[in-house]
Amino acid sequence: MSQVESVLIDETKDVLRETAELIEAAANASPEESKRIYAKIAENLQGAKHRLVEIESVAVEKAKVAAKKTDEYVQAHPWQAVGVGAAVGLLIGFLAARR
Length: 99
Prior knowledge:
The chain contains three helices and no strands. By secondary structure, it is mainly α. The chain has one domain (3-98). Helix 2 crosses helix 3 (78-98).
C-alpha cells in the first residue's frame, strides 16, 4: 500500500470516528445544537465519500497497470504463462479433491 493510500485511509477512519462521536452527541443536544451537529455529520460523510473515491481511483489505476504488465509478460512469454496457469489449475484441483 502506498503512502498516499495509507494517509487517505487513515483520514477516512478519523472522519468516520468523529462522525460516530457527533451522532452520540446529537442524542443529548438541544434542537439548535442538533442542527449544527447534523451539518457537521453531513460534511464529514461527504469528505469520507470523497476520500473513498480517491482510494478507488488509486486502486483502479494500480489494477490497470498490473493488468497491462501481465498482458505484456504473457505476450512475451506465452509458454511460461501456459505452464504457470496449468500448475495453478493442478494445485487448485488437488486442494479441492482433498476436501
